[in-house]
Design brief:
The chain is mainly β and about 325 residues long. The protein has one domain: Outer membrane protein transport protein (OMPP1/FadL/TodX) (Porin), CATH 2.40.160. The protein contains two helices and 20 strands. It has a 14-stranded antiparallel β-barrel. The chain is elongated, with a radius of gyration of 22 Å.
Length: about 325
């Protein structure tokens, strides 16, 4: 009884710290690039505000906290997502995890992300009536390919990591080198980046804690300006709040996820997500993301049966077109 009281006190103190931290946050001044790495694509995750640091059991963890992949319940888990982001930017992502010998040797994973920015018309300054001339079209794009591994070190503690190749091409536009001369130049960059995370089950009911570090890499440079990837630190916890109900409904759960996020070039903020599960077949989800300029609440639902999962999320935007995401999962 005394131990349970101590654990509950720790939970209350940590919850207060999580919710109060962003209130005193300050703007960051650091410059980052390759911001497509900061956009979530998975429908289940984004429906819950991407508060997925302590989420476990699917290959999607490769995009949030690789340690969550350690307790894969099936031999193979595949997740595929597609969405159209603001300005008609198209994202496609996929993640696959393999658990051999019931996870005795750990869980291996592969992740892929592709971004299509569409077609652009290049121009250069010219001494004519329009003030410019067209130099043809170009198509910026980006992609990420990652390989991850996760392992249960004990029945409560898991670790995981991922190494990934991050690349972006801004096309081959013409660049003026003098008043009368333009040359075609390629603007492409690639770099290896690393993700790392841990997940801990406290033993107090279903309470979990986790942390992750994503997009750790060396500095890059386009032309003269140097920049770094959007390095992101996350700390989170989650719990099935129905654990506190005296007469717990059968085959139901209500999970609450809370993450605090420290991202280079942006102020600290909190994400809160909730997922109601009925018989592990039907899911209702909602999330809240603090201190954002163009969106805050997110919503979604999911269906799961016969090894197939279908998830949908909706993010209403205050300025841009609302964002819809659809994800498919296969496990066997």
């Amino acid at each position: 009884m005394q131990r349970a009281s101590i654990n509950f006190g720790i939970v209350v103190m940590l919850l207060g710290w999580f919710l109060s931290w962003p209130l005193n946050a300050q703007e960051k001044l650091a410059q980052t690039g390759l911001q497509f790495l900061s956009v979530g694509t998975d429908a289940r995750a984004t429906a819950m505000g991407e508060a997925l640091t302590t989420f476990e059991g699917t290959a999607v963890s490769l995009f949030y906290n690789p340690a969550g992949m350690a307790r894969l319940p099936k031999l193979v888990d595949l997740r595929v997502s597609r969405m159209t982001w603001i300005a008609d930017i198209n994202y496609v992502s996929a993640a696959m995890a393999f658990s051999f010998a019931e996870g005795r040797y750990g869980v291996f994973g592969i992740s892929v992300l592709s971004v299509d920015y569409g077609d652009f018309i290049g121009t250069v300054v010219a001494d004519n009536e329009r003030g410019f001339i067209e130099t043809g079209s170009f198509s910026p794009s980006a992609y990420v390919i990652g390989v991850g591994y996760a392992k249960d070190l004990t029945d409560r503690f898991s670790v995981g990591g991922q190494i990934k190749l991050v690349a972006q091409s801004l096309g081959k536009p013409y660049v003026p080198v003098s008043d009368s001369l333009q040359v075609q130049k390629s603007f492409s960059q690639s770099v290896y980046a690393f993700d790392f995370g841990t997940l801990y089950k406290t033993g107090f009911k279903s309470l979990r804690f986790g942390m992750s570090v994503r997009n750790f890499s060396r500095e890059l440079k386009y032309a003269q300006e140097g920049f770094q990837l959007p390095l992101t630190f996350k700390i989170g916890f989650s719990m099935d709040v129905m654990d506190f109900w005296g007469n717990r409904p059968e085959n139901q759960s209500l999970w609450v996820f809370i993450d605090t996020i420290n991202r280079r070039s942006f102020r600290e903020f909190v994400t809160i997500g909730g997922e109601y599960r009925f018989m592990d077949k039907f899911y209702l989800r909602a999330g809240y993301v603090s201190l954002q300029d163009v969106y805050d609440f997110t919503y979604g639902f999911g269906l799961n049966g016969f090894g197939i999962a279908i998830d949908y999320s909706y993010t209403p935007m205050s300025v841009f077109t609302d964002v819809h995401r659809v994800s498919f999962g296969f496990a066997f």
